[in-house]
Design goal:
Number of helices: 8
Structural class: alpha/beta
Bound molecules: NADP nicotinamide-adenine-dinucleotide phosphate
Strand order of the largest sheet: 3-2-1-4-5-6-7
Strand content: 15-25%
Radius of gyration: 18 Å
CATH architecture: 3-Layer(aba) Sandwich
Number of domains: 1
Oligomer: single chain
Largest sheet: 7 strands, parallel
Helix content: 40-55%
Length: 262
């Protein structure tokens, strides 16, 4: 039987590009892919954090080459400059994103919807499009977009975030159709609750409100999702993991969770 495992010589290390690598799932994915033998290109707005992360990774895994770049996926010029600085891409992790608030449709604020679409949807579109030529040049490329359970299941208060992540799902599926027959795999990983800075950002910096989301249950960690990304990217070349819904055991749907109260 043909062995389709992706093998690279030490001089031919695959390069993984990760957006939103300055915290949470993106930072954990940098570690996971570095440990899986990838060199890294890390992008986010907070470049100081990227620098700290890169130094820690290189200190622990010296053979990994890590480069960091300022990236605002909502800014076309920033995405263009980011992509122009990359000469090889074998894995792209479209991770930058987030939610704003939980307002109803009735009370919705255009600017919040606009921002959620810009970062979650157009951000994925811009970076994917910008790196597609390089991905096509790879012996076997993988594009992983971090969606959400919000892409699969509408929920009260989900509003703009639901709509944006549903759009990411549509974009990802169309991309998979468009790349059929080419050596580029396309995957969407949809996590449920993951304890990161996500809820703090969603609630405008309200740490108590964010902490309450995870109270009395064990959410996923950023590392849990990162392991899934690394697993998807290291399957044999003929295997495409199209989508993966990844939930904590304590969560069965967007708003149905099991909490232990003291
Ligand atoms: P997080 O800790 O807040 O990380 C978000 C990352 O996105 C940060 O590195 C941030 O970096 C980056 N980012 C935000 N806006 C950006 C922009 N305009 N340009 C470039 N980077 C930007 O949250 P997380 O949980 O790891 O979120 C990662 C992804 O998982 C998001 O797409 C989120 O929607 C999704 N997700 C999260 C959960 C959850 O419960 N945590 C569940 C399902 C899906 P800078 O601020 O430095 O730019």
């Amino acid at each position: 039987m043909a062995d389709n495992r992706i093998t690279h010589s030490a001089a031919d290390r695959p390069v993984a590009v990760i957006t939103g690598a300055s915290s949470g799932i993106g930072a954990a994915t940098a570690w996971a892919l570095a440990r899986a033998g990838h060199d890294l290109v890390l992008g986010a707005r907070r470049t100081d954090r990227l620098g700290d992360l890169a130094a820690k990774i290189v200190a622990e895994i010296p053979e990994v080459a890590v480069s960091t770049s300022a990236l605002d996926v909502t800014d076309v010029d920033s995405v263009d400059a980011f992509c122009a600085g990359i000469s090889r891409a074998d894995v792209l992790v479209n991770n930058a994103g987030g939610a704003i608030g939980t307002t109803s449709i009735a009370d919705s604020v255009d600017d919040e919807w606009q921002q959620m679409f810009d970062v979650n949807v157009l951000g994925v579109l811009r970076v994917t499009r910008g790196l597609l030529a390089l991905l096509r040049n790879s012996p076997c490329a993988t594009v992983v977009s971090i969606g959400s359970i919000a892409a699969v299941e509408p929920y009260l208060g989900g509003g703009g975030y639901n709509a944006a992540k549903h759009a990411v799902r549509a974009l990802t599926r169309v991309l998979r159709l468009e790349l059929l027959g080419e050596p580029v795999r396309v995957c969407e990983i949809d996590p449920g609750m993951v304890e990161t800075e996500f809820s703090i950002n969603r609630f405008g910096g309200d740490e108590d409100r964010a902490a309450a989301v995870y109270e009395g249950l064990t959410p996923l960690s950023a590392e849990d999702v990162a392991e899934a990304v690394a697993w998807v990217a290291t399957r044999p070349a003929h295997v495409n993991v199209d989508s993966m819904l990844l939930l904590a055991r304590d969560q069965t749907s967007a708003q149905r969770v099991h909490r232990v109260t003291a």
